[in-house]
Amino acid sequence: MQSSKAGQDESSAAAASNDENIQVRSLTAAETDIEKCYAMRNQVFIQEQNVPIEIEMDSYDETALHILATYQGQPCGAARLVVSEDTKTGKIGRVCVLNSHRRKGIGRKIMEHSIQELRRILGTGNKAQLGAQTHALKFYESMGFGLVPGEEYMAAGGVPHRDMELTL
Predict the structure, then answer these.
(1) Which family does it belong to (predicted)?
(2) Residue 12 covered by a domain
């Protein structure tokens, strides 16, 4: 029994250590580190998923709040928040983690930070929305998002998506 407990402790310690290596922060398009967000989005969406650059980069990039994740100081993930004060909704989009850094909890940290930022900006009781790639539906459901009525649709150059939302 003791070796089993020791294994659990080691696993917990590894998870905690992993967590300490992940840093997530918000930035605007005016900050120099924005290029790191764009580079990761380019790698994941344009290079890996073949999303055309004219779809991936758009006019929202100038006014959005961007999220940058680092692992051991190296950029590894990004997201973008587009807020509508009129409708009191925030759209989380362009969520990505570099292939070499997946399955380390970075996506979860990006989403937790994004939700926290939307709560700060919009207040509780309002909505966070996203268009989820269908392969990631379970991940977003684990973050509290639910599917909204509607069909699967193709976006981002032909990638299947479903709309989801969360009450902040």
Answers:
(1) Belongs to the acetyltransferase family. GNA1 subfamily.
(2) no
**Cβ atoms 132, 161 nearer than 8 A:** yes
**For the whole model, what pTM was predicted?**
0.86
Total structural domains within the chain: 1
Is the model's pLDDT at 123 over the cut of 80?
Answer: yes
9: in domain: no
Contact, 157 vs 48, CB < 8 A?
no
* Domain encompassing residue 72: 22-167
Q: What is the mean pLDDT of the segment spanning 109-123? A: 96
> Which tokens belong to 118?
């939307």
Asked if residue 76 lies in contact with residue 101, where contact means CB atoms within 8 angstroms, the answer is yes
- 3-class DSSP state for residue 155? strand
3-state secondary structure of 111: helix
**38, 123, 111: which is closest to 75 by C-alpha?**
38
CATH number at residue 100: 3.40.630.30
Residue 18 binned pLDDT confidence (cut-offs 50, 70, 90): low
Q: Does a structural domain hold residue 4?
A: no
In the predicted model, what is the mean pLDDT of residues 8-27?
64
Query: Contact at 8 Å (CB) between 126 and 88?
Result: yes
SS3 content of the chain, % helix, strand, coil (to 5): 40, 30, 25
